[in-house]
Amino acid sequence: MFRAFRAEVEAALSRALESLDLPTGDLGVEEPPEDVPATLASSVAFRLAGEVGAPPPNVAADIAEAIDVDEYAFVDRVDTQGPYVNFHVAPAYDEATLDAAQEEGYGRLEDRETSVVVEHTSANPTGPVHVGRARNPILGDAIARCLDYAGYDVERHYYVNDAGRQVAVFTWAYETFDESDLPDPERDRPDYDLVRYYRKGNQWLDEASEAEAEAAEAEIEAIMQGLEAGDEETFERVGRVVDQVLSGMRQSLERLPAAFDAFVKETEFIRDGSADDVVARLKESRAAVYEEDAWQLDLTDYGIEKHLVFLRSDGTTLYTTRDLAHHEWKFDNFDRAVTVLGEDHKLQAQQLRAALDVLGNDTSKLESTFYSWVNLPEGGMSTREGTGVDLDDLLDEAIARARDEVESRLDTRSRDDDLSEADVDRIAHQVGIGAVRYDIVSKQPTKSITFEWERALDFEAQSAPYIQYVHARCCGILDEAEVSETVDASVLTADEERALLRVIARFPARVEQAAEDLEPHVVATYAREFAETFNAFYRECPVLSAEDESVRAARLALVRASRHTVANALDVLGVEAPTSM
């Protein structure tokens, strides 16, 4: 209802300004500070004071007087506070909020009939997913979920680097070394199995004699040339390695969960000739220069000093060249293209956008969001020698620590449902994985993170378990009573009841904001604030023991509305909502 109320406020302001012969370009609508009882306020009087030739408070008073609240369903009254015009909600606002949030899909917005492809993760298929890169699939999946909830038709893509030197080295090593030359794999999974060949190959190249290294490099170069020439046998050799590694990496990502609608390979754009087409068009562009035995783009007109090499002297394309063809394919098939990248890829993203413009594309379709790294405190986890910390290690430990926490609370649970071992396992998985996801997605992407177990798994503070517990508490209440079909929202007069209704009303607007800005941490912050507001309501407003039957029915409806709100807020973030904890 907040979105509908905001629309009415904007309409009321526009009409009032028009009646006063004042411009309506910037209405200055904003949420007021907590100590102001209004739901929305306008600072437009500041902007217009000079034009009107009167102090802002006087302008605000004139605007407020020109508004007829009888024309609107959700605007109850308008007043002023200094230069601000304040808007207060009508009883119908709370009634409509309680009614709308009874639907399980509450928070999902209307279909925008706009397709969006979200490319994220896209880690090189050379081994298990590392913790340092875990922010990409978590952030990317949450962005895709935000867009989906906001009414966009979303596809999630993983762009597979299967044509570069790393993959060529991997293929050569896989075909060169025997199993007996390698240490035992750390896990029984293809990515952990095959990464041993990749590590062995790189170690061997570093330590080999000049003649041995030269011979190996010739074989590696032959693989790269074979890919560039479209040789089917080479595609099959590389694909045998890449597909096996990807199958293992997908198992790690699915644990988060981060699912993909398509794995799009670089080699597709070599095979179909589109990379060659990009090269031909770039050569003909004004930005093309041939320097240092390579074709490059001079992008100084775009404020980029570093030239972009798009064709090597040996006639092979580069990752960015093939990515240009990839993005043109995106533009042909989707209305918007969103890419989630590490902060070390900013220059690459700038060059890509500029080159796409050189090629004549509408680059307004392209949006990139960047993130900083995830670090672990020293001693925060045990690591296997020489491998760092893989995502699987982090998730395993998260689940184990969550299980310890859940088991330590079994004797103090208020619910009388007996939890089986399977229940404890399920809750530990939901809480452990949820703690990792929420702790990472709740921070602004550009800020680096040091992951700390005590904070992430704190049931009493700003964490996933704290929010998940609200959902479990709602389920526990609703398991004991049925919600009436007819409810009178007007009996919800306590401050805590009204506050909870008002925060529920804002959920769809927070989804809209998160999708518009590609910032899912907006929903994470909202979920935490919602949990705090619900807990205040729970402490002060008995539900099942309420003496008045109409109040009891209304509070039960409010609990159901809360359950839908918190479940969907968590779902936007990719965090499961346990029914018991």
Description:
About 1% of the residues have low confidence. The strands form 4 sheets. A 5-stranded parallel beta sheet has the order 7-6-5-11-12, sandwiched between helices. It has a 4-stranded antiparallel beta sheet with strand order 1-2-4-3. Strands 8-9-10 form a 3-stranded antiparallel beta sheet. It is built from 21 helices and 14 strands. The longest helix is centred in the C-terminal third of the chain and has 25 residues. Helix content is 52%, strand content 11%. It is an alpha/beta fold and 581 residues long.
Structure at a glance:
This protein is α/β, with parallel strands linked by helices and 581 residues long. It has helices spanning 2-19, 44-52, 56-65, 91-100, 135-149, 165-176, 190-207, 210-228, 232-254, 267-271, 274-283, 319-333, 346-358, 391-408, 421-441, 453-456, 464-479, 495-505, 507-517, 521-540, 549-573, and strands spanning 29-30, 40-42, 75-81, 84-89, 115-119, 153-160, 262-265, 288-291, 294-297, 308-311, 336-342, 366-371, 374-375, 449-450.
In spatial order, strands of the major sheet run 7-6-5-11-12
Strand content: 5-15%
Low-confidence blocks of residues: 382-386
Q: Strand pairing plus helix content: what structural class?
A: alpha/beta
Task: Determine Rg (CA atoms, Å).
Answer: 29 Å
